[in-house]
Amino acid sequence: MPLSPSTKIKAPPYPLDQIQETLLGELIKSVKDLAEFEGILLPKSEKELVVKAIHIDSHTVVEILCVLDEVVGFEVGQGAVRPGGYESIQEAVDDVTARMGKLWEKHFEGADA
Q1: Which parts of the chain register pLDDT below 70?
Q2: With contact defined as beta carbons under 8 Å apart, do 62 and 37 qualify?
Q3: DSSP string across 11-60
Q4: Of 5, 75, 78, 88, which is most buried with the most CB atoms under 10 A?
Q5: Angle CA 33–37–42, to nearest 5
Q6: Closest by CA position to 27, among listed 61, 68, 52
Q7: Distance CA 73, CA 44 (A)
Q8: Residue 108 has what pLDDT?
Q9: How far is 84 from 56, CA to CA, in rounded Å?
Q10: How many CA atoms lie within 13 A of 6 on its CB side?
């Protein structure tokens, strides 16, 4: 039975783990690169690094969002990032992941079958 044009597609499951893992890896790399360039010492432990108080500019986060395009299947815009930046890698991952969840729902909300 054909679906009518007004039939909505149910959003696929949100790939939370994959988004968090991808974003975490890119943010760690970016913070380490910047710290090396600026001569800042960072914790050796990834667990400590992720929660360390370090400012991450929102522009830096926006620059790495393209890695999420492939994960979610659509272009992730700067709406996934809080203006002003973040004070730790974990804060950035948590906020961007939550914002991505809303963008995910919005993206599929208007999709036609």
Answers
A1: 1-9, 110-113
A2: no
A3: PPPP-HHHHHHHHHHHHHHHHHHHHHHHT----SSHHHHHHS---B-HHH
A4: 88
A5: 65
A6: 61
A7: 34
A8: 84
A9: 9
A10: 0
